[in-house]
Amino acid sequence: MPADSGSASHRVLGCPELLSLVLKSFSVSDLLEDVVVNSKRDRRLHRATLASCARVCRTFTDQALDVLWNTLDQLLPLLCLFPTFRRVEAYSLFVGDLDEGWARFQQYARRVRKLKYRVNGLIHPSVWTLLARRNDGPCLLPNLQKLSAMNISLTDVAPLTLLFSQNIRSVHLAFKDDARPTSSKALSFIATALFDNLIKNTGPRLEELCLFPRFPLAPTRVIALKTCPSLRHLFLSDSSYTILDEDDIRFLTQLSHLQSLSLTIVLDDTHTAADLQLGTGFPLLEELWLDGDVSDITNLRSLHMTVKEVSRTPPTALGDVILPLYALKRTKEFGCDIHTLALHTSDDDLRELAQAWPRLDWLHIGGGLASPGVRRASSFPRPSVRGLVGLAQRCPRLKVVDLPALEVAQLPPPESVPVFGRPTTVLRLAWMPPASASGSGTYFSLAILLDRLFPKLEKFEIGEPGQPDEVGRRVYRYLEAMQAGRKHARLLEPSAQGEGLSSEEKEDVVEESDSDDSAN
Q1: Which of 6, 98, 304, 348 is deepest in the core (most CB within 10 A)?
Q2: CA-CA distance, 223 to 227, in Å (whole number)?
Q3: Domain locations in the chain?
Q4: What is the gyration radius of the CA atoms in the chain, in angstroms?
Q5: Which helix (H) or strand (E) holds 8?
Q6: String of b and e for 237-261 (b: at least 16 CB within 10 Å)?
Q7: What pLDDT digit, counting tens, does each position of 159-211 carry?
């Protein structure tokens, strides 16, 4: 067909590059992500659309099939390509040889790039034995790049070894809870053998490896990662078994491309965290999740930590625990969960934290005084509005603040609190002590003080996630009224309208002005 003839749709779909873009808009979401954007119904609809496109004409067929088979959430569709794959009583299995459907199976298997391995107890174990014997190459899916198997049973180990392609870039693995035969130590032999097989086949190109809490890898096998020079993201999350020492950490410093690292460390009495020199060993590291102790990391922007126990008695301040981390001057995000430990967080702690990390834009401190067992202890200092003033003064970019508690028994007078106007949009408190008899007055006064510090608050909550307290809603209603009052005050001053406002605030003023005009 001449280039200048036919409808616009024919000319667009006749171009392979444009056709590819159109078809990729029906691709299902990445099933390896924690949050699946498309619903199950949407994915089914998209796949049906792609299957229909593949039947339109030969021009569409190959490209539509490439997108359709790019991402699978189970292996069953591939197995159903064999005419001899049948359901026999309680199991699905091969009732004949594999020669008849083998060429077609390979044709479609080469299209698969992402697979979420789903356990299917209805597939007979003999299926994987026959596929392994018939397969000519090292794996069933030669072009597979992403593999997620999050609920492995012991019978799934053999099928998984058939999926380890040399082209794999990302792997997520975890055993089912009931897959532990007797203990983590017993399961560790199987997990370590599976790990060795994975590294042997995928090592050179592997970029992301996530071994989650139900994957007890023997710490001595970490050395096998030396064959993974491209590794950028490493998560060794079984903190009950995969525990590394200073020698293991020093070995990991050889993986110079690491950007994200999650592990559990335990140092003996002759070493301190400073001996590890992590700052120079991981030049590209930007994110670190630790169970343990660390004090010399100098290149992080995002830090998330869990404090499970403290050796000091009596209980001390949170600031004393995280003091070694204040050297991380580039930190922008800090999250710390202290669970039920009786670590207090005072105004001084918040001021010191803010002074050490002036670039902070996200702060989360969970647990501690928010725990029911210790929240009523009057002897424990709690952060107050003065602590929030210290945060607002030294962290001008702070957008999200999550604290375990806030003391409101003695609020400072409003004129003593500076007007900072910080861009903070979210303030959460796990708990707030009950106010005095004049509760309403206390909550209104608190709202006035918060508005001076954070005039752009979009959310103020008290309570556990998903269980907001009524007090928090009451304070936020006061804040909303103050914010609305400012906007309407500007409407009453036409000469000053829009001066000193952000683009979003200008749009709000215009919209409200238009709505007022239409009402009149």
Answers
A1: 98
A2: 9
A3: 20-68, 301-489
A4: 29
A5: helix 8-13
A6: bbbebbbbebebbeebbebeebebb
A7: 899 999 899 999 999 988 766 555 667 888 999 999 999 999 998 899 999 99
